[in-house]
Design goal:
Number of helices of chain A: 9
Oligomer: heterodimer
Order of helices and strands of chain B: HHEHHHEE
Distance between the termini of chain B: 71 Å
Mean pLDDT of chain A: 88
Largest sheet of chain B: 2 strands, antiparallel
Low-confidence stretches of chain A: 1-63
Mean pLDDT of chain B: 86
Strand order of the largest sheet of chain B: 1-2
Shape of chain B: elongated
Structural class of chain B: mainly alpha
Number of helices of chain B: 5
Strand content of chain A: 25-35%
Number of strands of chain B: 3
Radius of gyration of chain A: 24 Å
Helix content of chain B: 25-40%
Low-confidence stretches of chain B: 1-6, 8-19
Shape of chain A: globular
């Protein structure tokens, strides 16, 4: 029977992205010849210089978007500057799956380095599609228990003192498919790709609350999106006064539409669905609204006939992103084990790595920056002897919390729990160097 | 003493084929080196000149109590946007709905996705399914469908959600009476209210949902324990 819930992140086959495929593509491109690279580029850009070159380059149709690769880039002029600095033609990271209105689209964690997620690779989860909003007509309403209800334009929001912070956003359903139906051919993207980490710029909600004169009896704030789901969540006033932000920029430029253009709420460390995208309204109230997405969804059924509600914070978690399926170790020797760790309760203080299935652990190096409520990159150099190995990572945070083992997680949360999947992940390294997800 | 730039250029033997080309290259490189030195000297002077503080430092303005930004919302804007309804009934509009009208609205607006009997279709969730007697088994089995009858803790959520987000292809298109009627239909089919009940702003908040006592606040607090 099909699980009947549109929030369920379905397992989907990872996109084929092995290097061998790319290698073949490069070989084809190389075969097109290195002659008149610059002319071909002009041809793509529609320059009048291109007329003869366009006819002289029969391969241009087949590889129209990609310049051919010279045998020696020092011997021919390079490409002229373009209106956008696109990715190298050899790097083709993609979100997966795509084309869904409700469904999630995962960040390719295995393709990333450092801690920042490029904006176009930020994971997506919509509740009824990506809203298209004209920034000139955008308005944020702040009302309810306030002395001076206000409507702010985008320009108004930008006129307030701004702050810039780096934070992860993680869907609280992240890891569901890996927990319920683990498969060896799961990539880090499919296991845990519903988390991303960007630099966000905006105005602290507390600044806006001061502007409208929030009343003391206001203990909750209802946040509502301007999308077709008009997604709404109740946020405790305490969080709003602490570190909540109304953000309009991501990684140095306006938000991308899938991430809430022109304005979204950002609640550092809280589950992603609460960081309301396309934010249109904040209402100051004295009780939670008990909206659909804080009652029938985004609550955690537990063993013992209970369901946990208002489970806002994303607990500490980590995942090894390399080596991991579909990567392959080409032979014995020194290999870096790298991955990401994060916690909604402050900073990651330590990440341990095991290469023997959890029998022994070594402390990994944390590659800076180590920021609160942000992805933190870890690394451990490992001398692989070409024998079978199970590699795992275990995150610690500043509250003393330790990422739980899978068995512990299962015992406490049960098999039916719906959100907040943060058990330790493992990868099985085979003697031939292939690496598979181990649950 | 600075090393000569010529040390870094391979000198061909006299009479070797590249010799004639090497002479202008050496001259060019030497001029370039001299040029860079001259440039360095100038930039040092500029830096020294720019280091002196110009102008008078004053205190940055203290932030005001309010910045005076934004405008007062109009009544029509509040009416259009303030659409939520809460368990106390605040936000529920005038109007009412009945089971019989709900049967009609459900068949027309909802059944295509949720099934003729609220059984769910493909990814669209099952809506109808009474509570399990004295049991709430969801933590142990993800395959048991969560329905309005066995999982939703507040009846007002039905109005709030259907009004704002349903039908999926035409969200916000139902009139209050249609929403109340669909709510009456769904609550009756889940055996929570009788079919004769009229649902409105007064009666809906009084409907007790069977699953409500099952919900507990978050008890995770970080630290050494795992909950």
């Amino acid at each position: 029977m099909i699980e009947k819930a549109p929030d369920d992140e379905p397992y989907v086959s990872p996109p084929v992205s092995r290097r061998s495929v790319l290698g073949a593509a490069i070989a084809v491109l190389g075969g097109a010849g290195s002659a008149s690279v610059a002319k071909q580029v002009f041809a793509q850009q529609g320059s009048p210089l291109n007329q003869p070159a366009g006819r002289a380059a029969p391969a241009a149709g087949a590889v129209s978007a990609k310049p051919s690769v010279p045998a020696d880039a020092t011997k021919v002029p390079g490409l002229p500057s373009a209106s956008l600095g696109d990715r190298s033609q050899f790097e083709v990271p993609t979100l997966a799956p795509t084309g869904v209105v409700t469904g999630p689209s995962f960040t390719p964690l295995q393709d990333l380095a450092g801690t920042i997620t490029p904006s176009d690779l930020h994971f997506q989860r919509h509740h009824n599609g990506i809203a298209v909003i004209d920034p000139e007509k955008y308005e944020l309403l702040l009302h309810g228990m306030a002395a001076r209800p206000r409507v702010f334009s985008l320009e108004d929001l930008k006129r307030f003192p701004a702050v810039t912070r780096t934070h992860f956003i993680e869907c609280s359903g992240n890891g569901r498919a890996a927990y319920r139906a683990p498969k060896p051919e799961m990539t880090p993207q499919i296991v845990d790709g519903l988390t991303s980490n960007c630099e966000w710029t905006g105005v602290p909600v507390r600044t806006l609350l001061k502007e409208v004169g929030a009343e003391k009896k206001a203990s909750w704030v209802l946040a509502e999106g301007g999308d077709a789901a008009v997604l709404s969540r109740s946020v405790p006033m305490e969080k709003m006064l602490d570190d909540a932000l109304v953000v309009y920029a991501q990684n140095g430029e306006p938000l991308r539409p899938p991430n809430g253009y022109p304005v979204r709420l950002l609640l550092p460390g809280y589950e992603g669905n609460m960081c309301i995208k396309w934010l249109r309204r904040l209402e100051l109230v004295d009780q939670p609204n008990m909206s659909r997405d804080e009652t029938s969804k985004y609550t955690d059924p537990l063993p013992g006939g209970r369901a946990r509600q208002f489970s806002f914070v994303m607990d500490a978690k980590s995942i090894i992103t390399s080596p991991a399926y579909p990567a392959r170790l080409s032979g014995a020797g020194w290999w870096p084990i790298r991955g990401l760790a994060w916690t909604g309760r402050g900073k990651i203080t330590r990440v341990d790595v095991s290469t023997d299935g959890g029998r022994t652990w070594a402390e990994a190096e944390l590659i800076g920056p180590v920021l609160p409520m942000a992805h933190t990159r870890f690394q451990l150099m490992w001398k692989w002897d070409a024998r079978p190995a199970t590699i795992m990572s275990r995150a610690h945070d500043e509250t003393g919390y330790v990422q739980p083992a899978l068995e512990t997680y299962r015992e406490v949360r049960g098999r039916g729990t719906d959100y907040h999947f943060n058990s330790i992940r493992s990868w099985k390294v085979q003697p031939d160097g292939n690496v598979f997800f181990g649950g | 003493m600075r090393p000569s730039i010529e040390r870094f250029i391979r000198r061909p033997r006299l009479g070797a084929p590249g010799y004639r080309a090497a002479i202008p290259l050496t001259v060019f490189a030497s001029l370039l080196w001299l040029g860079c030195r001259a440039g360095d000297d100038q930039s040092v002077k500029r830096q020294e000149a720019g280091n002196a503080e110009q102008g008078i430092m004053v205190k940055a303005p203290a932030p005001p109590p309010t910045f005076g930004l934004g405008r007062e919302p109009s009544g029509s804007m509040l009416a259009a946007r303030d659409i939520d309804a809460n368990p106390a009934g605040i936000g529920l509009p005038p109007g009412s709905g009945s089971y019989s009208e709900g049967v009609r609205v459900y068949a027309e607006k909802c059944a295509a996705c949720h099934g003729a009997r609220g059984e769910g279709v493909a990814i669209y969730p099952q809506l109808i399914g009474a509570a399990h007697a004295d049991s709430f088994p969801f933590g142990n089995d993800p395959k048991i469908p969560k329905t309005i009858g066995n999982y939703w803790p507040y009846a007002t959520t039905l109005y709030d959600y259907i009004h704002r987000a349903m039908p999926y292809g035409a969200p916000g298109s139902l009139r209050p009476g249609e929403v109340y009627s669909v709510v009456a239909y769904l609550l009756a089919e889940n055996q929570i209210i009788p079919r004769s009940a009229v649902i409105d702003a007064k009666s809906l908040p009084k409907v007790k949902m069977p699953a409500q006592p099952r919900f507990v606040p978050d008890d995770r607090k970080g630290g050494a324990s795992f909950r």
